[in-house]
Design brief:
Layout (H helix, E strand, L loop, with lengths): L6 H28 L21 H12 L3 H14 L8 H21 L3 H26 L1
Amino acid sequence: MTATAILQPVVALAGWTMVVWLWMYAVRIPAMQRSGIDSTVTVGGTGRDLDAILPERVQWKAHNFAHLHESPTVFYAIALVLAVSGHGGEGGAVALAWAYVALRLAHSLVQMIYNRVVVRWVLYTLSNGVLSALVILAARAVA
């Protein structure tokens, strides 16, 4: 396996993030219109301001989109370290990277569809365990 094989799950997670972005707006824009929000005259504010206005189920997509820009940023950096250092295909790194992506995708679907916090927490915790293993591999690679 080549050192750059770890970049495939990186691209997969980035692609999933774009799917969530589209899903968020496909749901959020109609909800904003139904709520009477005119974005052409709205000044300032953040997406969080919409929590008080839009239905929870609509905002779940936005919250997940934000979550995909938190812990996954560490994943992207670590995957790049492994690829650049020539260790992206060693020590189970690719399998761990795909496991991370699968857990994040599952987390996204749970949060966006039915949002059971305990299920999300388990998936989040498992994904961060996998991410920790990748960080350890990267630390060994550059040590």
